[in-house]
Hints:
This protein has 167 residues and is mainly α. Helix content is 68%, strand content 0%.
Amino acid sequence: MSGMHHQPDGRAFDIVLILHVACVVAGLATAVASATTAVRLRALLETAEPFPDALRRYFRPGVNWAGRAVYGIPVFGFALLALSQGSYSLRDGWVIGGLAVFVGLAIVAEGVLWPAERRLQVSLVPVAGGGVPVPDSVHRDARAMVGASAVALALLVLGTALMVVQP
């Protein structure tokens, strides 16, 4: 473990740290919601029953803005670096590691998770009432959403551990 850092303090640092952590918590919550909703969708697709209102609301067309809160993680992270008075820098391995984890998260979210979610928003409209054959693409997108959500969740946990331990 590298030398201990002087812990920055001050009202501005504390507020930015709270915002940084809030973005991580929002990311964790939305990854769990995505994974559990996709698992529930996959189970319901096998029954041909009408979807519950909660599932229909989740797949209502529109951007998953809550999920996009993860973009606040590096924004507030860079602000924390600036406010740390030299205690932390881009030369710290754990900072670079955290950025790499975030890039992986962004690739998974933008490349797999959110596109699958958007496709399901469109594909599920005729299926939501039940009794309508489910296209194969819905099953594929639901699987993709489960897998991408799990990877996003793992990356968020890894990034959180890295920031807490600061090796």
